[in-house]
Amino acid sequence: MSNTSRLTYLTSVGLNHDPFATPVAEQETSSVEDIPVFYSYYLQPAFFTGNQELSEKDLRQSEKNFFIYGEPGDGKTTLRLAIEAECRTRVEKTLVVSYLLGEDLKNPLTLEEHGDRLAKAIAIDLFIQIVEQYDLFETPPNKKLIEALRKQVALGGRHISRLMRLILDNSMPNARAGIGAYWQTVGKAAVKYVPKTEDVVKLLQNCLDDPAERSVLTGWDLVQQGIHAARLWGFKRLLVMVDGVDTRHRTIKDMLALIKPLFGKLPGLAAQDIYFRFFLPTELQAKIEQVLGASRLPNYLYMPIIIKWREDALRRLLAQRFFAAGSHLQGFEALAERNLDIDDKLVTAANGSPRRLLRLASDLVDVHVARRGPGDLRISQSDWDKIQNLTQRD
Predict the structure, then answer these.
(1) pLDDT for the residue 352
(2) Nearest residue to 146 via CA among 202, 91, 186
């Protein structure tokens, strides 16, 4: 089926884009060099710790380390991206750092290797968030601030250098994100409009110079250098978002070995208002609680969080996708034959998984478009029958 046929149908029923193109958060945020429409899709699931239900604000502001568990497709990465976007667009002076442990890591990291890797992540995110929030600074940065940022730019290496050259050597991008459209070069999504002002250009030109002193630090000393730079620039706390620990290519043992070295750092970092958010598969929960209990990490420093999707939340998620695409519809019901109850069927078949729900919605569109005749907008029972064999798909 051609994308043209699919888009023609969606346009004909009042949608201004395809909100079911992919159910994968990383693909939704990387599909455009601008502020992704993905952020308008976000709908908060229920978060539980024991019998207590928490809010997304709790996950963003709480002075604890959270271990956030969910099944594949429960929206762990979506939640991470939403929290990051909130921190970057609110005046809370929270530096949010993406610490991704992806498939490029074939073996567990030592604690020192974690330090080197995390320090670079801090450098990149600090640079971006300073530029994003530069218009909030009341006075120009002094030499001390610029020198601290230069060291972070040097640590970020070619990633930040390339980003700065894109900004300095090109005119303002024709994008809602402004120069934020360039963030994709370092694997970050734009979250707001960022102007290319004379002050920003001057700051970047100053940062192109080598720092007065080349850093000879490594590992966690480099992390502390990044924390110090963040403090100088006015960030009062740090949130480190640990993601990419999954079961696709790793055993439970390997996943645990990958993040376990970080646990011993949690008390000392919490004393500096630095907190971690681990986004983890459910099968790790028992092992992690066992390790944390054996390490005698104080209970007040960490909390397990479970992501749960109720059926009413899945219905709202479906409605939110239609709304984000400019439609007044709240689901497929108005596009279906009478008494088909297609939204109920989709939600039931999703079995508590938002990813499965979105895949089924996408399949339903494809099946209908492949079958329909001229002017036939109504989803039929036969359309639903053809995707029944897909309801067990992960």
Answers:
(1) 92
(2) 202
Beta partners for residue 305, in sequence order: 68
Residue 90 CB-half CA count within 13 A: 13
Please give the Cα distance from 120 to 151 (Å, whole number): 11
Strands (E), the chain: 46-49, 52-54, 65-70, 94-100, 237-243, 274-281, 302-308
Closest by CA to 320, choosing from 82, 44, 41, is 41
Cα 68 to chain centroid distance, Å, stands at 14
At 44, give phi and psi (nearest 5°). Answer: -75, 125
Number of H helices, E strands in the chain: 17, 7
Torsion of CA 200, 201, 204, 209, to 10 degrees: -140
> Measured at the alpha carbon of residue 341, what is the angle toward residues 336 and 342, in degrees to the nearest 5?
60
Residue 268: DSSP 8-state = H
The conformation of residue 109, written as its DSSP 8-state character, comes to: P
Report how far residue 276's alpha carbon sits from residue 248's, in angstroms, rounded to the nearest whole number: 23
Please calculate the CA angle 370-371-372 and round it to the nearest 5 degrees: 105
3-class SS of residue 332: coil
Which residues of the chain fall below pLDDT 70? 1-2, 31-33, 212-214, 247, 373-375, 389-394
Between CA 311 and CA 333 the distance in angstroms is 16
What is the Cα–Cα distance from 54 to 95, expressed in whole angstroms? Answer: 22
* 295 Cβ neighbours under 8 A, 6+ residues apart: 263, 264
By C-alpha distance, which of 127, 118, 121 is closest to 269?
118
Domain chopping of the chain, boundaries: 3-38+310-390, 45-308
**Predicted pLDDT of residue 278:** 97
Q: Whose CA is closest to 209, among 146, 158, 263, 140?
A: 146
Q: How many CA atoms lie within 13 A of 107 on its CB side?
A: 4
* pTM greater than 0.85: yes
Query: Which of 211, 132, 120 shows the shortest CA–CA distance to 167?
Result: 132
Give the pLDDT confidence score for residue 323 in this predicted structure.
95
